[in-house]
């Protein structure tokens, strides 16, 4: 790599900055972080989670070097599709007669026991809060394979980052890989972020109505990366824009100038975006709406509040 290319890479990577939200008590969009269940194992979770970088920094830092065809930084475009497309039930996981949506999965043997527990803990939120149930695969044809795909070391960041996090959009049929590079992607929020892609969810800032809520600063985006900010034909499920979504980019994603924002919330530019702590309550509401989880939908605080208001009228 020549000097000019090295400098460009350095600027791109160092431009990704922190964007962790601070949720206030009673916030409708609080982050739902599930602590590991007590089972007598003092070493239940051994992987430390640093808040030093936002979700975009952690995921995008080296995914651009991936051999996979990636869109929006961490979405694999299936060779059978000509674009990211998940507009109908064809890409959704099937609901069984008991009302549950089973998503079979396997976990590669390269993961440590602690990493496997971390993955299962992230899945537990879906299993408890929605009708989507991640279940160990037996003989099911369609399933996700959670793998430790090798990444590349980015030595210009101190400490060096070694990542490879990506997923397909929705159910693609047969085996589909969710990559969680064990040295950089096994974080609670990142696991949930990639699993949510596998359920059919886009990044929040690509919503069809996003221009009402965020300003895209095109002049600070790497020209080769502008396609990652394209608005998608999304089904917003009659839910509000969620700055706190685990699917939202951080404010300096793909910046070409250190510290310059590529995404600015409007009208309040101080709103935090890019958290990787876990699913927000609106993320959970959308999963239940998309998959018709009626009994879970009724338990959601936003829905209960609306029902209470109707009863008072």
From TrEMBL:
Record has Disulfide bond as a keyword: yes
An individual GO BP term: proteolysis
Alphabetized Pfam families for the sequence: Astacin (PF01400)
SMART domains in UniProt: ZnMc
Listed GO MF terms: metalloendopeptidase activity; zinc ion binding
Domain of life per record: Eukaryota
Cited InterPro entries: Peptidase_M12A (IPR001506), Peptidase_Metallo (IPR006026), ZnMP_hatching_enz (IPR034039)
UniProt entry keywords in alphabetical sequence: Disulfide bond, Hydrolase, Metal-binding, Metalloprotease, Protease, Signal, Zinc, Zymogen
Active site residues per record: 194
Binding site for Zn(2+): 193, 197, 203
KW rRNA processing (keyword) present: no
The protein's name: Hatching enzyme 1.2-like
Organism: Clupea harengus
Organism ancestry: Eukaryota, Metazoa, Chordata, Craniata, Vertebrata
Name of the gene this protein is made from: LOC122132521
